[in-house]
Design a protein that fits this description.
The structure is a single chain. About 60% of the residues lie in helices and about 0% in strands. It has helices at about 1-30, 40-50, 60-65, 85-90, 95-100, 125-145, 150-170, 190-205, 215-225, 225-250, 255-275, 285-315, 325-345, and strands at about 185, 250. A two-stranded parallel ribbon has the order 1-2. α6 (about 125-145) packs antiparallel against α7 and α12 crosses α13 (about 325-345).
């Protein structure tokens, strides 16, 4: 077992980084060999999360949570070396590995712990699940290998399999509401004006103080360790959630039923995604998977705005500045125009 753990420590960094960085690009872009040029803001963030090392000790922050070490302290246990060096020497092993049945050993490396440290990912977090699945796959591969070693191709296969298991463990959240949940009432210009006024009131009631988007705040949290940015993301998540709940309580004109449903479901999904963004320090793989879902959720939101805008245009509804509902109609028109311009690029 000591030899297995030693080999595991040698390849674990490669496995983790390959699975997270390369896998993140594949999951987000849906292609097998993406180039650097194709990386979007989201994929750049995925790489930043996977490689962030706040204390420059050789262990990425998210991996430190697996070892029970402090990502802000280079020598967590005062061993006279960085945490990365201690891991390489076998003085610290992942708690998820140490606690697995059959891995305990009296002759193996010491498992160092210390009171008062942030705990490793709790059971049930995506990060802990990934670590456990990856190590289980590694042990199985080593046992099948004649010499107890793995080739580069075997290592890459392990990373791919671990990603597949990770994706299989994630169940997509159901839509917040279905068509059967809507109260459909009225139609025509007057009903559309009343709907716009009601939506405007909902958005104004849930307006926060965020100065930029959740993606920019997440970038600040990751690259600048800005905890205030996570607070803003949590507020944005609440804004989406409360707005979706408000929309669900409205009576919606017949011609807007589908677009209204798409709008509230997109907002509900973005609320969940933003909540996972706030977990970047405690369950970073949850954030990585949320980033994978984010572009499609934003696309759904924009699509709902485009559909609503077209319905208002077709109905000839125009609201002057200052009229109830005017700000929401103008917002929808602006988003629709921006989306149209983006599609032409």
């Amino acid at each position: 077992m000591e030899g297995v753990l030693r080999n595991w420590r040698i390849v674990s960094a490669l496995l983790f980084s390959t699975a997270l960085i390369v896998g993140a690009y594949v999951l987000t872009q849906g292609i097998s060999s993406p180039t650097h040029v194709e990386a979007s803001t989201e994929t750049a963030l995925l790489e930043a999360i996977a490689t962030r090392d706040s204390d420059n000790d050789g262990l990425p922050d998210w991996e430190e949570s697996l070892y029970g070490t402090n990502p802000q302290v280079a020598d967590t246990f005062k061993l006279g070396m960085t945490d990365g060096a201690a891991v390489a020497k076998g003085l610290i092993v992942p708690k998820a590995i140490a606690n697995m049945p059959g891995t305990a050993t009296t002759s193996g490396p010491a498992i160092v712990t210390a009171p008062g440290l942030p705990p490793p990912p709790a059971e049930g977090t995506i990060t802990a699940t990934f670590a456990r699945n990856l190590f289980t796959a590694y042990l199985a591969a080593v046992q099948k290998s004649p010499d107890g070693n793995l080739s580069d191709s075997d290592t890459k296969a392990l990373a791919t399999d671990a990603l597949a298991q990770l994706m299989g463990s994630v169940v997509a959240a159901p839509d917040f509401k279905s068509m059967n949940n809507l109260v459909v009432s009225g139609s025509g210009p007057q009903a559309l004006k009343e709907y716009a006024a009601s939506v405007e009131a909902i958005f104004l009631a849930n307006k926060g103080n965020a100065q930029t988007s959740e993606i920019v705040y997440l970038k600040k949290a990751v690259e600048e360790s800005d905890d205030a940015a996570l607070t803003h993301i949590a507020a944005i998540a609440k804004m989406y959630r409360m707005s979706a709940a408000g929309l669900a309580a409205l009576a919606v004109p017949q011609e807007l039923a589908q677009a209204d449903l798409d709008l509230m479901n997109a907002m509900s999904q973005l609320s969940s995604i933003n909540e996972d963004f706030t977990r970047v320090n405690t369950d970073p793989l949850a954030t990585i998977l949320a980033l994978k879902q984010y572009p499609n959720a934003v696309k759904k939101l924009s699509g709902a705005f485009v559909a609503i805008n077209q319905i208002y245009k077709n109905s000839g509804v125009v609201l002057a500045k200052g009229e109830p509902g005017a700000s929401i109609v103008n917002l929808i028109a602006d988003v629709a125009a921006e989306q149209k311009a983006t599609n032409k690029q």
